[in-house]
# Entry
Amino acid sequence: MSTTFTIDSATSRANPVAAPMKRLTVPAIRNRKAAIADGKGEPLVMLTAYTVRMAQLMDPHCDMLLVGDSLGQVIYGLPSTVPVTLEMMAAHGAAVVRGSYHAVVVIDMPFGSYEASPQQAFESAAFLLKQTGAAAVKLEGGAAMASTVAFLSERGIPVVGHVGLTPQAVNALGGYGARGRSAAEAEKIVGDALAVAEAGAFAVVIEGVVEPIAIEITRAIPVPTIGIGASAECDGQVLVAEDMLGLFERTPRFVKRYGDMAAFVAERVEEYAGEVRTRAFPSAEQTYAAKS
Ligand code: KIV
# Structure
């Protein structure tokens, strides 16, 4: 076993641990925009992660892991992201940082933790970064949040913006339908992306918009765009991991199901239940024999 430890300074780990890969940095993510424009960089790969084991499995393949507030629905069965708390985000964020060595870990600021003022946002974001070791936060909203994005960025907190369909605003939007179908709404979303990029966001998630908007934003802003239900022309893509793995029967149209985790789990559990009921499990192989 190697005794050479790579200190993972990107997450300021108190105890050096063997880091099989070097962690990417926020500047490296931001600089990918220019590399992509020059035809030298690959699109950015981002997936949500909420738990240590999923983070371990996804980390080597991802540039960024997003501890999304979608954990409210995916992990906790809540009706929306609105009830998600800072404490929930901190607990899952810390698990994802513990399970990753390569990807930049970004944590969602939950609803109610940042909208009141830049100061409130700073306190919430600082809490998340201190509790977890993550590198950055993501917050929803455009022009209205620009001064907050600037406040955080200027104080050493890297921010990912999130425009278009912003799920925390579900009560105001009235649902999760694609945004930007009217000219006025399209103009507003493009303006939102420009505002948060100008304010210092190092990347911008564009969610649930008609494609021309995502293309226009991607061409207009100097930082990477990460699409979800947006366009293949974005500088990267993000999905909820459990959606793309097929854990749920119903997924939004923009999700490609790369597997059928729901069927896999149901079938394996049915098999186990059958073996318990027929006493086929545990067999001698899984049973401790007494010492002879
Ligand atoms: O919370 C989340 O998972 C997200 C992504 C879907 C972008 O914000």
